[in-house]
Structures are given as structure tokens and as C-alpha cells.
Specification:
- This protein has about 250 residues and is α/β, with parallel strands linked by helices.
- It has a single domain, classed as TIM Barrel, CATH 3.20.20.140.
- The protein is built from nine helices and eight strands.
- Strands 1-2-3-4-5-6-7-8 form an eight-stranded parallel β-sheet.
- The protein is globular and about 50 Å long.
- The chain binds zinc ion.
- The site of zinc ion has 5 residues, from loops.
Length: about 250
């Protein structure tokens, strides 16, 4: 069994054939899929998708690109969703300086800190989004030593990986690790400690090599797994068992 630790199954691009997409995943050996919200509405949708299933699990939070909507009202609703038993993690949350129309650092930081504190209060892991924001992300998560969580869609190299591992974090690799140019990311995947490594798709984005340019879906997490097994010199079954055990431990599945 494999776990896709990050897929946005509520996204518009899945509206027409979501049941089939989930079938494809199960047929490919994907036993669990974590569905993280990006704002109040999608966090609610993630929880409703997960409710009553054994294989879908939700996370509730506010993505940095949505944090212009951070307000006392949104926090109140999100806090209720975060406390729902279907919600296995907080997020996705973090900092994103890539998109120029994102809110400024102060606004992103306030929203992220609130979620880091909710993760500690609720004793749930945090799913961290970090894009062009490594120094500030590291500074913020480093302020909370009791925090558990995962750096999702990790695209950086060994040095950055080690910094998060030293803070107790897990590292989740996506289809980016399969792209020919991304040598340093593969080197990070090779060196990540065995008890900290996870795999994900970040569907519908970032389809792995061979499916690039198309919609990504959870079944394709096996391509990520295959590449990571290759760079680490282990067989796929062993790699699947390792990432499966790590995800179950982190998310309490
Ligand atoms: Zn995401």
C-alpha cells in the first residue's frame, strides 16, 4: 500500500470524474489519500469528502495565497473544522513569496502563526507549504519546538531538508523529484532519514514525468515512489512500506 499524503480532490478539475479518480488510485495500490484544504470552503469540502470513507482523510487550514481572507470570522469557522475528527492535520499553511499578488509577509506570517498554534493546541500535525520562503518558514516553525508536521511538496536540496529534519519534521516528495533537471531534489530524497520520508502527488498539480502537462491524480504517486526507491537503492515494496508507516504515524491513520 502507498499513501498519497497530499491531493486536492475537491478541485474543479475532479468534479466530473472524482469517483473514477479514487477508483484508479485504489487500483494502483493507493490505500489512503490526505486531502488538505486551502481556505474555509475547501477545508469544509475536504472534511465532507473524507466523512464515511476509510481511505480519504482531511486537513483544514488556510493557504498563504488565500490569507487575504484571514479574519476573526474565518478563524472561528476554520477552528471548528480543525477540531472535526475527520481532520487529521492542520493546513495547508505556510508562506509563499512566489506569487506577486499574494499578501505581504506580515499578513502571511500572522495567518501561519495562528495555524502553527492551532496545531499544537489540537495536537495535530501541520502541513507546510513553502515557496521561495525557506528562511522565513524555517524561522517560524523553529519558534515552536513541540510542533510535528510535514514540509509538503518538498522541492529543495539536502541542506534545507536537514534543517527541517532537525526540527522534527517529515519531508514529502512529489512528482517534482521525477523531473530530469531536479538533481538536488533527488539528492535530498536520497538522504532523508528513513523514518521521515513521505510521498504525495499535490494533485491536480505537478504531474510526474511521463504525465507532465496533464492533470495529476493520486494513482500517479506510484511514479514518485518508484523514483525515490531508485535513488535510495531499495525496492519499491520496501519504499512503499516505509512511506506508508511514516504517513500513518504522522497523521494517526
Ligand atoms: Zn497543496
Amino acid at each position: 500500500m502507498v499513501i498519497d499524503s497530499h491531493a486536492h480532490l475537491y478541485w474543479k478539475r475532479f468534479h466530473e470524474d472524482r469517483a473514477q479518480v479514487i477508483e484508479n488510485a485504489l487500483a494502483a495500490g493507493v490505500g489512503h489519500i490526505v486531502v488538505p484544504g486551502t481556505n474555509v470552503a475547501t477545508s469544509g469540502e475536504a472534511i465532507e469528502l473524507a466523512r464515511g470513507t476509510n481511505h480519504l482523510h482531511a486537513a483544514a487550514g488556510m493557504h498563504p495565497s488565500d490569507c487575504m481572507h484571514d479574519s476573526p470570522e474565518s478563524r472561528e469557522t476554520l477552528a471548528q473544522l480543525m477540531a472535526d475528527p475527520e481532520c487529521v492535520a492542520i493546513g495547508e499553511a505556510g508562506l509563499d513569496f512566489f506569487h506577486r499578488d499574494n499578501p505581504p509577509l506580515e499578513k502571511q506570517e500572522a495567518c501561519f502563526r495562528w495555524q502553527l498554534e492551532k496545531a499544537i493546541e489540537l495536537n495535530k500535525p501541520i502541513i507546510v507549504h513553502c515557496r521561495d520562503s525557506h528562511a522565513d518558514t524555517l524561522r517560524l516553525v523553529g519558534d515552536y519546538p513541540e510542533l510535528r508536521g510535514v514540509l509538503h511538496c518538498f522541492t529543495m536540496g539536502p541542506e534545507e531538508m536537514q534543517a527541517y529534519v532537525d526540527l522534527g519534521f517529515h519531508i514529502s516528495f512529489s512528482g517534482v523529484v521525477t523531473y530530469p533537471k531536479n538533481k538536488t531534489n533527488r539528492e535530498a530524497a536520497r538522504l532523508t532519514p528513513e523514518d521521515r520520508i513521505l510521498v504525495e502527488t499535490d494533485s491536480p498539480f505537478l504531474a510526474p514525468q511521463g504525465h507532465r502537462g496533464k492533470r495529476n491524480e493520486p494513482a500517479y504517486v506510484v511514479h514518485v515512489l518508484k523514483e525515490i526507491a531508485r535513488v535510495r537503492g531499495v525496492d519499491e515494496k520496501t519504499m512503499a512500506a516505509t512511506t506508508d508507516a511514516n504517513a500513518k504515524a504522522l497523521f494517526g491513520l
